[in-house]
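Please, structure for the following, as tokens.
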Amino acid sequence: MLFGQEHVKRYQETDGAEGHDWQGTTVLLLTTTGRRSGQPRTTPLIYQKDGDRYVIVASLGGADHHPQWYLNLQNDPQAELQVKGDKFKARAHTADQSEKPALWKKMAATWPDYDEYQKKTDREIPVVVLERA
């Protein structure tokens, strides 16, 4: 399965039966509001639970700039999540220095490439925490 708009389409059509489990990880759909367009933008992202919270990483494969979805959340932290068939509103914040190390470790255990992505860039890759609104 592709990781992109085809992934989003299949995930939405099957309530995550196709697309939630991906290459040994779990994936949610994050819908943000485009900061310029005002239009909804949906992105499939690897996640882990941390208690009742959902944790994602703004890695963009180690690019030197933040992904668009992260910039959208900085502009408006309100988002919508879909985890399998569960669709709900959420509020995002970037993990601070007190919470990021443990969350990074959890996410890198899920997708070890995150450590490699961080080595590729001088940008500090953000960890984002999403809480049900």
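The chain has one domain: 5-132. The radius of gyration is 14 Å.
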